[in-house]
Amino acid sequence: MKKRRYLYQLKVRTRVMYTLTFVLFFQYLGISQETNGFSQFFTPSDTFNQKRFTTAVSIGSATYAGFAAGLYYAWYKQYPQENFHLFNDWNEWGNMDKFGHLFSSYFQAHLTYTGARWTGLDENNSILTGIICASLFQGTIEIMDGFSTNWGFSLSDMAFNNAGIGAFVLQQKIWKEQRIKFKVSSLPERYSENPILSTSGLSSTNLEIRADDLFGSNYYERFLKDYNAQIVWASVNIHSFLPDNNKFPKWLNIALGYGSENMFGGFTNSWVENGELYVLNDPELERYKQFYIGLDLDLDEIKTDNHFLKGVLSMFNIFKMPSPALEINTRGEIQFHLFR
User: Fold this and answer.
1) How far apart are CA 321 and CA 187, in angstroms?
2) How far apart are CA 63 and CA 11, in angstroms?
3) Cα–Cα distance for residue pair 299/297, rounded to 1 Å
């Protein structure tokens, strides 16, 4: 189980690094266009531009190859492999990993589509590029899983990968824009240092020690790996669904979120530490799921003549802005949060 947990952590970090690499690359392209007097960021070339296409393909291919090879040699090669097989990991970590797949595949499709439009490819070929690139990256990880003895190919992972790609494609086909954007947030959590006795009664630990082992001890690690702190959002631009010339602010979105809480193991809150078994029986620490509705800012809709600032705002628009939200959870509770 510990090996599997570390693989999940490595996969999460790989997905985030891959996504951010594409974000930074396309932001660079946008800034380069501005400094050279060309059109603003995300404006496609009027005609196919071979130089832009070669640049985009070269950087994208190198990024994909680097992450795929790095992940294989850093992890999969270290463990035994066998014939391709399936593994059912549904509800592991409260399915937060599944929504991470949806979020990552959506933005990989969106960002590679943007790069294709920048090169001058037409709408349909750019959408196809987004589908192929996002499917290739996500599928590579799942195929590696499928040949690893300790893991397996996850049909539910692939379903959420396809859902993320599909969410991008359908919006682009129907509306020619992304009215519903998938985002992520992660607010640091503090864990109790009250002692927890092992089942033998001979040793003790606490949730903070467990969280350090699972999620890391600094903010960066916990942002990427702490599924208790993460929420995946669908941020809906209300203005775009209303009649033309409506007065609803273009920059104000309604966001629907999903999270899970009290997770201190993949499937159950039990673990072995220094040879001692720990099991959480406290009803207050029972695992549960959370559903949110709240406010969000669509940073792409903030008007500014500074094109560098536009690029920065677009880059940060993959994160949901902390703002008021209402939580309804599977414990039957309704809670208001000032920041979520």
Assistant:
1) 11
2) 15
3) 6
pTM of the shown model? 0.88
Enumerate the domain spans of the chain: 1-176, 179-340
Which SS3 state, helix, strand or coil, does residue 81 take? Answer: strand
Cβ atoms 130, 61 nearer than 8 A: no
How far apart CA 105 and CA 109 sit, in angstroms, is: 6
The token pair that represents 38 in the structure block: 């060309």
- DSSP secondary structure, 279-301, as one string: E---GGG--EEEEEEEEEE-GGG
- Mean pLDDT for each 10-residue chunk of the chain (340 residues)? 52 52 50 45 73 88 86 82 94 94 94 89 95 94 90 94 98 97 94 96 96 90 91 98 95 98 96 96 95 96 78 87 97 96
Neighbour tally for 222: CB within 10 Å: 21
Residue 208: CB partners within 8 Å, gap ≥ 6?
Answer: 190, 191, 192, 193
CB neighbour list of residue 126: distance below 8 Å, 6 or more residues apart = 44, 113, 116, 117
Q: Which of 193, 269, 195 is nearest to 228 (CA)?
A: 269
Our CA dihedral for 242, 247, 251, 256, rounded to 10 degrees, sits at -50
For residue 20 the two structure tokens come to 């951010």
Helical H segments across 204-320, by residue range: 207-215, 219-225, 307-316
Token reading at 95: 């399915």
Q: Are strands 270-273 and 252-261 parallel, antiparallel or unpaired?
A: unpaired
Asked if residue 39 lies in contact with residue 112, where contact means CB atoms within 8 angstroms, the answer is no
